[in-house]
Amino acid sequence: MASIYKTPKSRFWHCSFKSSDGAYNQVSTKQTDESKARMFCDSLQKVADDYREKVRTVSYLKKMLNSIATLVGGEIMEDYTFRTWSQSWLADQQAANAEGTYKRYQQLFDEFTD
Fold first, then answer.
1. I want to staple 52 with a disulfide (CB 3.0 to 4.6 A). Which of 20, 45, 57, 77 is the partner?
2. Is the CB of residue 61 less than 8 Å from the CB of residue 93?
3. Strand partners, 79
4. Tens of pLDDT along 50-79?
């Protein structure tokens, strides 16, 4: 079972949990709110327990990390495909480069994805 604790030299709560290999780990939650720290720590323990039970898919880990981020008010990880990431990158390049450079990037992207 995971637990949280405070150290005298830190304003953050720390988490002690048993990892998937059976070793105990201590990490900072980077949380000053006790309830958020508890949710974070319990979520880490759940991931470690599930991993020990062979629930080891990338989609599961992304789901759990996003769940933890939501609990503590963090940023959600985007689930990009090649196409969506490339379109986002191209939009950034359009603003940062000359029109000819952008058009060349767009042409290469179109050729690659057809």
1. 20
2. no
3. none
4. 888 887 787 888 888 888 788 777 777 777
What's the mean pLDDT in 20-24?
88
- Note the pLDDT of residue 6: 96
Side chain identity, residue 73: G
Kindly report the number of other CB atoms within 10 A of residue 69's CB atom: 15
SS (H, E, C) the chain: CCEEEECCCCCCEEEEEECCCCCEEEEEEEECCHHHHHHHHHHHHHHHHHHHCCCCCHHHHHHHHHHHHHHHCCCCCCCCCHHHHHHHHHHHHHHHCCHHHHHHHHHHHHHHHC
Residue located via tokens 């603003």: 95
